[in-house]
Amino acid sequence: MINTFTAAKLDAETGAMGIAVASKFPAVGSLVPFADPEAGLIITQSQARTDFGKTGIQLLKKGVPPGECIEYLLKKDNEREIRQIAAMDTKGNTSSFTGIKCKKWAGCIKGKGYICIGNFLAGSNVLKSMENALINYTEVKIWDMLISALKAGENAGGDIRGKQAAALLVVKKDGGYGGYGDKIMDLRVDDHKDPISELQRLLNIWEKELGID
């Protein structure tokens, strides 16, 4: 099961968008977050279907609204009620779905340009705390907003099963290393006793190497 808590954010000023995720599940960063700066982003968790990520990005790139995109992905899914999925387009429009069989507590809080979604959580306050971080901690770079949201979620109880993995994916058109590609960062902690702290350590190293203050 990909039981986890996830934050997504669009920086409307720069066009950068990103997803931060934490879970008591190994290598969660390889399964949950999908993003393309010319399309939007997809989050798939709670018995995640990685094909939803690829197909969802393709639909968003064609201009399909996030809500219709999710409807299309779930249309022929006989196990839709164990899925949790969220989508955001490049304008910050969002939509989500949490199946009734997702492990409780499960749900989503979203608004223009941000998503906080999770399942198997300590309670709704996990997502509310993440939302507060994304809304109020805005005078920083997008990756700092996202990792702050993870920390807030963890401090509010996080995944009730414990900790194991975390990841941070940020994309921007031509924002890759040296201006090649769109992936600004794809940092992953696949198995660690304190994955969010380890993710912060990796982020600090990344910023130091690139000379980012």
Structure in words:
The protein is α+β, with helices and mostly antiparallel strands and 213 residues long. It has helices at residues 50-61, 66-74, 124-136, 142-155, 195-210; strands at residues 4-10, 17-23, 33-36, 40-45, 84-89, 94-98, 107-111, 114-118, 165-171, 183-189. Strands 7-8-1-2-9-10 form a six-stranded antiparallel sheet, covered by helices on one side. A four-stranded antiparallel sheet has the order 3-4-5-6, covered by helices on one side. Helix 1 crosses helix 2 (66-74). It is globular. It starts with a strand and ends with a helix. The relative contact order is 0.19. The model has no long low-confidence stretch (mean pLDDT 94).
Task: Name some characteristics of this structure.
213 residues; alpha+beta; 6-stranded antiparallel β-sheet; 4-stranded antiparallel β-sheet; globular
Short description:
The chain is α+β, with helices and mostly antiparallel strands.
